[in-house]
Amino acid sequence: MQNSHNEINFNEPISGAVLAGGKSQRMQRDKASLKIAGETLFSRGVRALSSLCSDILIAGERSDLATESIPSFADRFPGSSLGGLYTALQHAANDWVCVLPCDLPAPSPRLLKVLLQRRGGYDAVIPRTSSGSEPLIGCYHRRVLPVIEQQIACKDLRLTNLLHQLKVCYVGPSDLPSGWRRALRNLNKPDELQRLNTPTPILTFVAHSGTGKTTLIEKLIAELTRRGWTVGALKHDAHHFDIDHPGKDSWRFNRAGAAITAISSSDKSAVIQQHQSPPTLEQVLRPFQGEVDIVLTEGFKQSPLPKIEVFRKELNREMICRGERHDPTLIAVVGDAERDLDVPYFPFGSYLSLVDFIEDKFLK
């Protein structure tokens, strides 16, 4: 389906639609009402759409989810994703519609914004990765309605067949925002929900001072992020540190006796918590759980976390995990001189191979 609408009007209002007409048979319970960190998947989808869309609707007969501002509409062609898309486009107030399924734990406004920025001259914009295209997370123009009707009249309910008839912009990993893996992940079966609730993998890097472990971690974070993973980072400081500045409001609150002081803006937030006694590692890592795919930490030599040691021969220092003590949590070594080791060894220049190792061991 061709069109001549090549210019993008960035002031054009956009509609949003949550596709919630499915029966959730594989999950064996209603997916829209599943809760992650106390918030339903449906609410998470609505929140993601609200930052971009002037109006939001529910595609599917869901009076239990509908409100005065978010109405639901029964599918004219129930039982298929194609029918749900038709319902969304038919009842949307605007020509362009962002659609999301109701089973996304981490829907991303940033991802939707990237898709919308590519819509000039196209009928649809959807993500496509090595796992395939994601047509239920995308932006569609209302002009595709007659095409859907004709396809359904032919008893063809395959959404992928619709895409073959449209002018589609496929947005690949190199153009998707960081964290796209989490944004595209959906829940279909109970075991997927169970895996989502398992502890986030944590990997710590240990080394003597001057080995370059911070530079290495920086490279690993950048590459993991480029590959679509969401990464958390934690630095262990053996000394006292202060990130607040005298005279600032947060400093004044803290000085007045606040146990927890937070500062927040539209794009970031920070929390400063006073500890009456040294916190456990579990307490420090708790905010990362469920928010990232992996946490990389620096330090924590005595912890039970899996470790990668960074080693430089020129420092003439004994290894931490294979010196006086044999640390069973060591899983790899990065260094400038290969040694007789019982764990994999990676030269400093092969950090991409180290990322492959981390992906295979913790993320796949």
Structure characterization notes:
Helices cover 26% and strands 21% of the residues. The strands form four sheets. Strands 1, 4, 5, 6, 7, 8, 9 and 10 form an eight-stranded mixed β-sheet that branches. Strands 12-15-11-16-17-18 form a six-stranded parallel β-sheet, covered by helices on one side. Strand 13 (260-264) and strand 14 form a beta hairpin. With 364 residues, it is an alpha/beta fold. The chain is elongated, with a radius of gyration of 25 Å. The two termini are 38 Å apart. It has two domains: 15-192, Alpha-Beta Complex (Spore Coat Polysaccharide Biosynthesis Protein SpsA, Chain A); 202-244 and 277-363, P-loop containing nucleotide triphosphate hydrolases (Rossmann fold, 3-Layer(aba) Sandwich). It has eleven helices and 18 strands. It has helices at residues 41-50, 81-91, 109-116, 145-153, 159-163, 180-184, 190-196, 213-226, 249-256, 281-285, 351-363, and strands at residues 15-19, 35-36, 39-40, 55-59, 72-73, 96-101, 124-129, 132-133, 138-141, 168-171, 202-206, 231-235, 260-264, 269-273, 294-298, 307-311, 330-335, 345-347. Helix 8 crosses helix 11.
